[in-house]
Design goal:
The structure is a single chain. Helix 1 packs antiparallel against helix 2, helix 1 runs parallel beside helix 3 and helix 1 packs across helix 4. This protein is mostly helical and 83 residues long. It is built from four helices and no strands. The chain is elongated.
Length: 83
């Protein structure tokens, strides 16, 4: 259960990091060179690992239900961060 919750939080963090990176893109500085984007991809990979571990111990519907909470968590965090 903790790995599913960790995956949920990490998915939200990754989404926010990647969204922040897309706002900093300029003609001279591409998206793949943005540190926040690269870190977001790494965090996304870690969230995937947490999801796989959670799926080894919990049924699919339970893990997907928990991971679905990342949508709400991301929306609330984005509202706080970006206003």
């Amino acid at each position: 259960m903790l790995f599913a919750l960790g995956g949920m939080v990490l998915n939200s963090v990754a989404g926010l990091l990647q969204a922040d990176a897309t706002q900093r893109v300029k003609r001279q500085r591409q998206l793949l060179t943005q540190p926040h984007y690269v870190i977001g991809l790494l965090v996304d990979g870690l969230a995937w690992v947490c999801t796989v571990v959670a799926l080894r111990h919990l049924p699919v519907f339970a893990v997907q239900g928990i991971l679905g909470g990342s949508i709400a968590l991301t929306a609330v965090a984005a509202r706080i961060r970006y206003g």
